[in-house]
Amino acid sequence: MIRKTNTLRIEKSTLTGYLFIVVLVFAMALPMLVLYAISTLGPLLSQDLVFDSTMLGYLVMSSFGLAAILSLWSGAIVDFFGARKMLLVIFFTIAIAFMLIASVQTFAGLIMAVAICGIAQALANPVTNFLIAQQVTQEKKAKIVGIKQSGVQLAALFAGLLLPGIALLYGWRAAFWAIVPVAILFCFSTFLVTPKAHVRITKGFTYTFPNSLLLWLMCIQFCMGISLSAYVTFLPTFAIQQGMTLFMADSLIAVFGVMGMLSRIVLTPVGAKLKDESWLLCILAAIAAGAIVFTMYADIDRHEWLWLGAACVGLSAVGTNAIAMSMVIRDSTFGTVTTASSFISVAFFGGFALGPPLYAILADYSGGFLLGWKMLVVVLVCACVLALALNSARRQSAERLTAKTI
Fold first, then answer.
1. What CATH number corresponds to the domain at position 103?
2. Residue 228: Cβ-neighbour burial (10 angstroms; 0-12, 13-18, 19+)
3. Would you say 373 and 358 are in contact if contact means Cβ atoms under 8 Å apart?
4. Residue 243: left (phi > 0), alpha (psi -120 to 50), or beta?
5. What gap in Å lies between CA 137 and CA 139, rounded to an integer?
6. 371 in a domain, yes or no?
7. 402 burial level (CB within 10 Å; 0-12, 13-18, 19+)
8. 198 confidence band (pLDDT: 50, 70, 90)
9. H or E element in which residue 30 lies
10. Which of helix, strand or coil describes residue 211?
11. pLDDT tens, 235-285?
12. Residue 29's pLDDT is what?
């Protein structure tokens, strides 16, 4: 008989300290690594498999499009099957996907192989947030969320620094093969950091709809997903057009990753101390819009704008997703942790899927990247407006709750 409970009590021996955190970090890093690998190795992929570089956007869409669809049910799936089984699915799926990517011979095959990563991407946030909600004390939750969300930028750092070197020495296929044993290793690590028993929050496989507050937060994350995915996908290609070497262009992604890790680790606890994190989301979106304007100023003689843009986007926009995840973990008004996390992922991945192909269409239409950058600035300005709307909605919700209590 399944017993409904709000807290899952776990034996202290199952918590293995740093290993628990490392597994959370890599559960976030490995599913997202495909995005940064496509970005940094894209020129080599397009040259070897003979397709236009703007088609890279459709590779990203195949993965994150599937992730967005699956995220509609990922929270309920995690609650039904438990964290251990779903963590195993994440790491096993990544191993299979990267094996296939390293073996494909056509662009169509590459799209299908990359799409498999969407399964792991859809599960990553609900699984890791579920483990944090159940195994981490309230005062440490924001800090741990920031650390585990920084895993996404760890993937960017790895893709920017190591994958190009492996690809140049041994080929891009070897670079993808290198990820497979890492994913398999974490399959075994899963058994050390997750409880064997699973107590479901709900009695069956149920599906709920997001409330109004969660919808506002989802809209913000949708905008951030569009801007981040398009920026990361096409930044190295744009940099090469401005005269950068492949290694230096890929180093921009490494800088983006380092600043993103710093942003998520530092800003998530800062946001948790604020009365309403919506103001912080607004400020970060505005900074990201300015950073993309910096990128637009770059040309063959002014590469410094590329470095400044990559650093500022990483420091600002990247932190917003970690802050959003921290909000839904700590504030029950957004809904249950697994369900709210999955809906945030739906919006974020939906934006990730739409951003690169939309940018590619604008680039093909205008014959350059300038119109695409302008589109991203407009999207980020919309995110600022939506963050202010969320602030107003949360304030009104709190006032109504106070009135009912009185």
1. 1.20.1250.20
2. buried
3. no
4. left
5. 6
6. yes
7. exposed
8. low
9. helix 18-49
10. coil
11. 988 998 888 888 888 888 888 888 988 888 888 788 778 878 889 999 999
12. 92
**281 part of a folded domain:** yes
Res 98 pLDDT > 90: yes
Nearest CA-CA partner of 205 in 75, 99, 118, 298:
75
User: Taking a C-beta distance cutoff of 8 angstroms, is the pair 59, 38 a contact?
Assistant: yes
Residues 220/390, Cβ–Cβ less than 8 Å: yes
Q: What is the 3-state secondary structure (H, E, C) of 47-74?
A: HHHCCCHHHHHHHHHHHHHHHHHHHHHH
Mapped onto helix, strand or coil, the DSSP state of residue 219 is helix
Both tokens assigned to 363: 């680039």
Q: Please give the Cα distance from 281 to 285 (Å, whole number).
A: 6
Residue written as token pair 């909605």: 393
The full DSSP string for 235-297 is HHHHHHHTT--HHHHHHHHHHHHHHHHHHHHHHHHHHHHSS-THHHHHHHHHHHHHHHHHHHT
Using the Cα atoms of residue 242, residue 248, residue 249 and residue 253 in order, give the sign of their dihedral: negative
Cβ burial of 131 (10 Å; 0-12, 13-18, 19+) is buried
Residue with tokens 């990203």: 60
Average pLDDT value for the chain: 85
Neighbours of 200 (CB within 10 A): 17
* Closest alpha carbon to 164 in 107, 156, 125: 156
pLDDT tens digits, one per residue of 48-57: 888 887 788 8
Q: How many domains does the chain have?
A: 1
Calculate mean pLDDT across residues 193-213: 68
Task: Give residue 397's identity as a one-letter amino acid code.
Answer: S
- Structure tokens that stand for 371 in this block: 């119109």
Structure tokens at 189: 């690590």
The answer to whether the Cα torsion of 189, 85, 351, 353 is positive or negative is positive
Whether residue 8 lies inside any domain: the answer is no
CA 131/CA 338 separation, integer angstroms? 10
Domain limits for position 109: 14-193+206-405
* Selection from 309, 287, 320 nearest residue 153 by Cα: 320
Per-residue model confidence (pLDDT) at position 7: 40
Burial code (b: 16+ CB inside 10 Å, e: under 16) for 304-320 equals ebbbbbbbbbbbbbbbb
pLDDT band, very low/low/confident/very high, at 12 (cuts 50, 70, 90): very low
Residue 132, in any domain of the structure = yes
